[in-house]
Design a protein that fits this description.
Layout (H helix, E strand, L loop, with lengths): L2 E2 L1 H15 L3 E5 L15 H5 L4 E3 L4 H13 L3 E5 L10 H8 L2 H4 L9 E6 L14 H5 L5 E3 L4 H13 L4 E6 L8 E2 L13 E4 L4 E5 L2 H15 L4 E5 L2 E3 L3 H11 L2 E8 L4 H13 L8 E5 L10 H4 L3 H13 L1
């Protein structure tokens, strides 16, 4: 089976869907001749032509608005916003328009649109590029939020997103784009939404994360194992829909939980995870649920991001405190 990194898995998935369905097209800033800022769309314009791989102007609202119109006309657009932080420039098209169009049209129209956007720290990028603002869109009913953490899931979730009749925001962990490879088969397969993955089994504590934070939690679990602590790791995969059953089952089994994410602490999606656990399995918890997140400040200069983002030591400190609770 082919070994691919996340970049290659996404590129392979896009090419296969464009080959399978002539309605599928790609649009965004520099997605054609350049192949995208991270080269995720490399080679697609040569294979499918400029009518299906369209370079757009530096105007996020136009990219999203055009995707809405294309979907209403019968196409299946896959739009790229160069970085998730830039989505602020097009939010009035993504939230009030794209996400709500089925409801606004009383079910007469759906919008089969996938919005791809890399995000997250660890690549020393300038301001606005690394912002983790996924919680903004959780507060926008009508759009699904997908957060892959590995190459296999990246392709399977992307194919699921493109085929979904409603809009999907597909957030890609840019710092993991070329970090490691895993088996990613050629051909069709999908990973269903709303199904979290238990990527490591443990008995004493559960670490919950999504996107690049999953890799951090796996490293933390390795370190905890050296201390005699057995930690499970749950990858949520999708925030909307959220797999409440798997989340609650795994946390209830260990009785202790730490939630890790790159977004700022206040009102991050980790708060929703904690609230869900409080409502569903309060009496199964042996200690308060902890959160490890970025700080409630604007994203700092690149030289300071290692202090700003969740770190291995911060996750270990939270886990040890929770185990003592």
């Amino acid at each position: 089976m082919p070994q691919r990194n996340i970049i290659e898995a996404i590129n392979n998935g896009l090419a296969e869907e464009m080959e399978r369905d002539p309605r599928v097209m790609v649009l965004g800033l520099d997605v054609g001749k350049l192949g995208g800022v991270f080269r995720t769309t490399s080679g697609l314009v040569e294979r499918f032509g400029g009518a299906r791989v369209v370079d757009m102007p530096l105007a996020e609202a136009s990219i999203i608005g055009a995707s809405l119109g294309l979907a209403l006309a019968g196409m299946v657009p896959v739009a790229e916003i160069q970085f998730l932080g830039f989505s602020a420039q097009g939010f009035h098209q993504l939230g009030p328009q794209l996400a709500k169009y089925r409801q606004r049209s009383r079910g007469r129209y759906h919008c089969q649109v996938t919005i791809r956007a890399p995000f997250g720290g660890g690549i020393r990028s300038p301001e606005f590029h690394s912002d983790a603002v996924e919680a903004h869109f959780v507060q926008t009913p009508g759009i699904k939020i997908v957060m892959p953490s590995n190459p296999y899931d990246a392709k399977g979730l992307l194919l699921e997103a493109i085929r979904d009749p409603d809009p999907v925001l597909f957030c890609e962990p840019d710092r993991l784009y070329r970090v490691g490879r895993s088996e990613v088969p050629d051909g069709e397969y999908t990973v269903p939404f709303g199904k979290a993955a238990l990527v490591r089994e443990g008995e004493h504590i559960t670490l919950v994360a999504w996107s690049a934070a999953v890799e951090l939690c796996l490293r933390a679990a390795d370190r905890l194992a050296d201390e005699g602590v057995s930690a499970s790791v749950v990858d949520l995969r999708t925030l909307v829909p959220l797999d409440v059953e798997t989340l609650c089952t795994e946390v209830a089994r260990t009785g202790r939980c730490v939630v890790v994410h790159e977004a700022p602490l206040s009102a991050g999606f980790g708060a929703e995870v904690v609230a869900t656990l409080m409502e569903e399995i309060f009496y199964d918890l042996d200690a308060p649920v902890a959160r490890v997140a970025a700080f409630d400040i604007p994203y700092p200069a690149a030289s300071l991001e290692d202090f700003y983002l969740p770190s291995l030591e911060r996750v270990l400190t939270a886990a040890r405190k929770t185990l003592q609770g």
